Amino acid sequence: MTTIASNIPSLYDTLPAQFSTLTAGAQWPEARKEAFDRFQALGGFPTVKVEDWKYTNVIPFFRSLQTLQLPAPIAITEAQLEATGLLLPDVYRIVLLNGELQPQLSELPPAKQATVLKMSEAAAEPAFTAHFNNSQKLAEHHFAQLNTAFFTNGLFIEAKAKAQVEKPLHIIHLYHNTSSLLVNPRHLWVAQEGASIQIIESAAGLDGSGTMVVNSVVEAVTTERSQMSHYQLQTGGGQLRFINQTLVQQRGKSLYNNYTFTLSESELVRNNLNISLDDERTETHLFGFYIATGNQLVDNHTSVDHRMPNCESNELYRGVLMDKATGVFNGKIYVHEDAQKTNAFQQNNNLVISPEANIYTKPQLEIFADDVKCSHGTTIGQVSEEALFYLKARGIGDAMARSMLVKAFAFDITAQVKIPAVRKQVEQLATRYLSAAVNN
Amino acid sequence: MLNIKNLHAAVEGNAILKGINLNVKAGEVHAIMGPNGSGKSSLASVLAGREAYEVTDGSVEFEGKDLLDMSPEVRAREGLFLAFQYPVEIPGVSNINFLKTAVNEIRAYHGQPPMQAKAFLDMLKSKQKLMEFDANLMNRSLNEGFSGGEKKRNDIFQMAMLEPKLAIMDETDSGLDIDALRVVSAGVNKLRSKDNAFIIITHYQRLLEYIVPDFVHVLYNGRIVKSGTKELALELEEKGYDWLKEDIRLEEPVQ
Ligand SMILES: Nc1ncnc2c1ncn2[C@@H]1O[C@H](COP(=O)(O)OP(=O)(O)OP(=O)(O)O)[C@@H](O)[C@H]1O
Ligand SMILES: [Mg+2]
User: Fold this and answer.
1) Mean pLDDT score, A347-357
2) In a shared domain, residues A272 and A399
3) N or C, which end of chain B is more exposed by having fewer CB within 10 Å?
4) Domain around A168
5) What pLDDT is stored for residue B239 in this prediction?
6) pLDDT exceeds 70 at position A5
7) pLDDT of res. B175
8) Of all atoms in ligand 1, which is nearest to the CA of residue B39?
9) Residues in chain B with pLDDT < 70?
10) Across the interface, which of B87, B92, B102 has its CB nearest the CB of A411?
11) How many structural domains compose chain A?
12) pLDDT band at residue A396 under the 50/70/90 scheme
């Protein structure tokens, strides 16, 4: 009989043992130990009784997992990469397998523009020591703690001061498993003073067996006057489930753009995106788009912390929910007492196409400064009957008209994408998922 | 071409059309006038197939077929066109893609293959010229941010592209500037032929000076209460509707 409060018997009970074997001799032992203790103190895997996980029951997804032990690496061929359909032109292609950099398949940017290293090789970098495991919000997230305790590897990226990194870095996360696996990739990205960098993430699962939960953490830091555009293209097949923590700290006059597009077959995608505006005159744009079909659950929890005056944040999330899918959107905006002259905007629009689909959407504004401009809005609806009639009155059939309107709703967001090849890929993926669903 | 018999229609249980009879033959232009709220747009909506309207009595034949039996898209494919009093803005749908889709859906209905890109562009250009339609508006989202007049002109441009048998123009003139009115009217006159017909809903005699109607009807309280030739429009312009209302009140029992 076990004495641990075990909400996931098979996996949770084995965690202490797995922790001692898997992290024996690993780097950053104190951080890992502290995080594991904190994970346990938080109660382990969050149940729906935890407010932030009210609508997203992760327990069933972890119940079937067996191990955190990565399988032996496999050789990836160019053809396999090609087959993902995710390759983009004019990028530095960087391939990771279960979080591990694959140098033979990758092209790194010139060293004078950016440093790209495995996390395991980055410990001596000043930017690493300055920023690693430093985000305040880490402590709040069960899964971030689990990640810190167990993470294997990931990418350290540093855009050098004043460097304009020429082409986008396209990180292709490949995942492979031979049994039901929990994998914990960990990344740290820093844009130094005046630097500008674009990072695109895509994901694909390779043939394997069992399911896989990818519990990843990205810590991103934009220092003074730097710019980072971050595209999270959440693609990937049915055996993958994603829990992402993206923690961003912005310094003075920096710009951070995030595009989180969930276009996958994963049954579970949970994004925690936390932005901390730690200095004045920062600018932040968050664009989200999700399509959920079948039994998918797509959950976006975002927070923007306005700590300092004169910062601007702008958030627009849109989703299309079909079949029996569920969407969750929770957008927190905190405007701290000192953050006068804040501009903070938030919008979440949802198209619920099937009567059996659900959306839970909740804006949460907490404003403690008096001289601010904040607004938020939420819509949940079907395609406009007026618009539908207009299209039909021109001879366009019902299914085609609906699909045009749903696409129009989606493409309003994808039009925000600044890289043409990314926009094209995203629109193709969106079209594929939308037409499959609209036409049945 | 169009034969409306004793048409009654209601919205949310309110009777709006109360027995309309109207016969439109190929080659004819009919004008419908009448005070605000008399049911002109409602008639247009019922003909185009807007779902909110429930037909409670009567029949409509279009080219020998039962119009009321058809879905809105089939009506359009059969050659009925409604230029809206208030065209809808549809962000994210490009004007040009919308038109291409409409043209090809109609072609498919008639068993024709999709139009080649080149042929489509040629047609686009010639109709743009005919209607003096600003080519810059083509690549924008459908009516999004268009001025009132631009929206109306876009609808008429669509009409030119789709070449309907019967076009119903609901207050196309309202919102058009003086030059635009002339341009649009000239375009419509060029589209007129012995094979097609127009129903023009308007409040103003002015449009009817450009597009000269064969018949003018007055719709009042859901019924056509008077029909005549183009001189009737002049008379209405001069006297307003009150004299007609008087006549009707004398004829009808108080409700
Ligand atoms: N959804 C509705 N519910 C109730 N009444 C309606 C509805 N739609 C239209 N009506 C009523 O039907 C009547 C006819 O409206 P309609 O729009 O056809 O008038 P119209 O002759 O086109 O007027 P206008 O000259 O102002 O354009 C009006 O009294 C209007 O209020
Ligand atoms: Mg009207």
Assistant:
1) 94
2) no
3) C
4) 11-279
5) 84
6) no
7) 85
8) 18
9) 249-255
10) B92
11) 2
12) very high
B183-192 pLDDT, tens per residue?
A: 889 889 999 9
Give A18-28 pLDDT, tens digit per residue: 999 999 999 99
* B12 Cα nearest atom in ligand 1: 3
Name the nearest CA neighbour of A286 among A226, A343, A231.
A231
Nearest chain A residue to B44 by CA distance is A393
Domain CATH number, residue B197: 3.40.50.300
Q: How far is the CA of B216 from the centre of ligand 1 (A)?
A: 20
Answer for the pair B96, B42: CB distance below 8 angstroms, yes or no.
no
A262 lies in the same domain as A120: yes
Chain B residues touching A391 at Cβ < 8 A: 90, 93, 98, 102
- Of the residues A244, A279, A314, which one is the last residue of a structural domain? A279
Q: What's the CA gap between A117 and A119, in Å, rounded?
A: 6
Statement: residue A355 has pLDDT above 80: yes
CB contact under 8 Å between B93 and A404, yes or no, is yes
d(CA A83, CA A17): 38
Instruction: Quote the pLDDT of residue B255.
Output: 45
Mutation target among A392, A400, A403 for the B interface, most CBs of B within 10 A: A392
Do the Cβ atoms of B3 and B60 come closer than 8 Å?
yes
Model confidence at A411: pLDDT above 60:
yes
Rounded to an integer, the average pLDDT of A393-406 is 93
Task: Say how far apart CA A375 and CA A336 lie, in whole Å.
Answer: 16
Q: Which run of H or E residues covers position A360?
A: strand A358-367
Q: Which of B50, B77, B91 lies at the smallest CB-CB distance from A389? A: B50
The β-bridge partners of A259 are A231, A287
**The amino acid at A111:** A
Nearest to B92 by CA among A19, A149, A289: A289
Minimal Cβ distance to A408: which of B75, B93, B162: B93
A186-217: pLDDT as tens digits: 999 999 999 999 999 999 999 878 899 999 99
Query: Which comes out higher in pLDDT, residue B244 or A16?
Result: A16
Ligand 1 pocket: which of B12, B16, B17, B86 to mutate (most atoms <8 Å of CB)? Answer: B16
Q: For residues A44 and A189, state if they share a domain.
A: yes
**What's the Cα-to-Cα distance from B140 to each of A189, A386, B115, rounded to whole Å?**
38, 19, 21
Whole-model pTM: value is: 0.83
pLDDT surpassing 80 at residue A4: no
Q: What's at A134, amino acid-wise?
A: N
Locate A131 and state its tokens: 């920023």
Q: How many domains does chain B have?
A: 1
Pick from A393, A396, A412: which is nearest to B48 by CB?
A393
Q: Which residue has the higher pLDDT, B178 or A245?
A: A245
Residues of chain B contacting A, Cβ within 8 Å: 48-51, 71-73, 75-77, 81-82, 84, 87-88, 90-93, 98, 101-102, 105-106, 109, 141, 158, 162
Rounded Cα–Cα distance for residues B20 and B109 (Å): 30
Residue written as tokens 């589209």?
B191
Q: Decide if B98 and A397 are in contact by the 8 Å CB cutoff.
A: no
CA quadruple A136, A138, A142, A143: dihedral, nearest 10: 170
Given A248, A279, A310, the domain boundary residue is: A279
> Using CA positions, which residue lies closest to atom 7 of ligand 1?
B11
